[in-house]
Amino acid sequence: MGFNVVFQKADLLFIFFSFHFSLSFSHSQYADDESDQDSPISRFQRYLIIKTAHPDPDYASVVAFLRSQAQEIGLHMQVLEFGPGKPLLLVTWYGSNPSLPSVLLNSHMDSVPSEPSKWLHPPFSAVRTSDGKIFARGSQDDKCIAIQYLEAIRNLRNRDFIPVRTVHISYVPDEEIGGSDGATKFVQSKEFKELNVGFMMDEGQASPRDEFRVFYADKSPWSLIIKDKGTPCHGSRMYDNSAMENLMKSVEIISRFRESQFEIVKAGEAANSEVISVNSVFVNAGIPSPK
Ligand SMILES: [Zn+2]
């Protein structure tokens, strides 16, 4: 998110802060060199070319692709829908003792927008360069995770491994825009309750090597909008109690708190994931002057 400032001759100001509270999870990236048409890498690339960026993620194509993969591996599938046009794909690998609490692996199908003009290769081209890098929006966040789940299960099944507990994978929509028609309704549903989940894993950070960090917590977002009112003014004079002055008091307090948290990270006393991150992301001031 960027920091957008619009200053006009103003009597009303809005400022939007995004807070992220402590904690995290993990994932990885392929280091495989296969280049044939049906390898983990090529399957990953086939997923990457599906246009999943907001505001118009192609969920139908994602579900069709992931279904075909799950079917190939011999997994059970179910498509749920908690909002119109917002499918949620639930894939299941039955364990030898399905009465035990299950394992749930989660991944979201949508991606944040991209600005194609700023990319070396088009964001949904999944171009793989000679040094092995693959370029695609959503490759790390979090299509690599979606594919890793399936590839891991494919490998284990090829070795005739059968888990004791049932393993589910949920592919959810709208994570990047809050998940109100996705994970939020899913976890409140009877379908979720019936899964009897005992352990769950979600996305985290990709790794350029074969070492993967597993995080056991995540940050919770809290969005805060501050609205400040003040005395309207004329450009030729100065008044006390302007909206901007009032707003600055709040900004200063929040900025000091932000600094105190960042200082802890800079001093090496805590990781970024262990402090409260605060970012001001949007400022809006009305009433616009006529052009
Ligand atoms: Zn993500």
Automatic annotation (TrEMBL):
Superkingdom in the source lineage: Eukaryota
Could you list this entry's UniProt keywords, alphabetically sorted.
Answer: Signal
Q: Which InterPro entries match?
A: Aminoacylase-1_M20A (IPR052083), N-acyl_aa_amidohydrolase (IPR010159), Peptidase_M20 (IPR002933)
Q: Which NCBIfam families match?
A: Ac-peptdase-euk (TIGR01880)
Residue span of the signal peptide, if any?
1-26
| Species assigned in the record | Cucumis melo (Muskmelon)
Q: Which Pfam families match?
A: Peptidase_M20
Q: What is this protein called?
A: Uncharacterized protein LOC103497502
